[in-house]
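Quick one before lunch.
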Amino acid sequence: MRTNIVHIGAEELTYEIRAIVNVGQKLQELGIETHWENIGDPVAKGEEIPQWMKKIVAEIAMDDASYAYSPTRGVLATREFIASETNKRGGAQITPDDIIFFNGLGDAISKVFGFLKRTARVVVPSPSYTTHSSAEAAHAGDRPVCYRLDPAHHWYPDLDDLEKRIKYNPAVAGILIINPDNPTGAVYPDDILIGMVELARKYDLFVICDEVYHNIIYNGTSTLPISDIVGDVPAIAMRGISKEMPWPGSRCGWIEVYNGHKDPLFEKYVASVLNAKMLEVCSTTLPQLALPPLMSHPQYDSYLKERVKRYEKYSNIAYDCLKDVEGVIVNRTNGAFYMSVAFEEGALNHRQTLPIANKGVREHVEGLVNQESISPDRRFVYYLLGSTGICVVPLTSFVTDLQGFRTTLLERTEDNFRKIFHTIAESIKQYLDSDR
Ligand SMILES: Cc1ncc(COP(=O)(O)O)c(C=O)c1O
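Model of the pyridoxal-5'-phosphate complex:
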């Protein structure tokens, strides 16, 4: 090329949650049975969509209007429905014009970060859901600016660390909160959330709060929507239907803008995000049309409740399997459907192994782990995959130096779920013992 065509942020675009699938598929070809615990898609893991939901969607698909473009911000009746639900909660009040629909939150995330001024940074959690951290880092063409989630304190944000990142980095213009969190499964208590908003107010920042899992909370925990505590701080909440409905294939999510007119720069920035959407015309129409009838259906709440109850039960099975294993820090998941397990510092080295019976699989794994730069947790993840077929994601791929792995709680069959977590626990012990 006579001129460099590579984007300044190209190096920052990684998504290990899907990249690990290539390794899993290769090992599957070599003869192992794979358990995919890497990706947060309830439908791919066997969630059955109830008949009443399918019927509503099918009826809408019979209406020609569902094949048309929709307004750039999104279908008006749907935005009215959402604004009224948000306003009912009290807290920050919005109009339908404070809502913009996207093709899934993935699209919202890429535009919200992509249209920030290049030198303005949003401080993101570490570990961090990579779609956020990669999009933020790519927009700046630099490594993400992170605040610490503390595995020794339920994976809650470390407010002192957050304040330091803001104070000593004048480029920071915003704070990203993911609550409930992916990849940790943490649900933040009110005082932590209030502390984060206070920091935004003190340093004149805006807040982005990803609340895609807001209705998937359990084990007696509760949390506040950001609209309840934001006061006069400019903020964006991100919500969607991928996880709670669950309908990830709909590619449908939205942002709610609070205090959109209180700061002229924030107002201009939000307008640029809307204009970016306008260049694309609009987002997927059919799921927007389906949203109000689905969410107000008499069986919607009970269907969601039943799933949440299962995640609660499985979060406890997983926690009980892993909590007494030496060498790892384990927190019970209280929201969403992920669990992050961190190895204690120094627990992993490059000599530990797990037995792999299949020669072809063993040789392939050995080839992968013998690369110079492989992180210790990735090495564990490859051995776990080769030895047991369980596919999880290395924690270091979520922008953290903490070694560990993220798994999901989505396996539906209880016997299989118990077997998987029992096997993970035994494999951790065996792996750590292999070099003692
Ligand atoms: C915290 C969080 N935000 C956003 C998304 C993306 O959601 P969508 O399917 O709407 O793109 C995910 C998907 O896993 C997620 O975990």
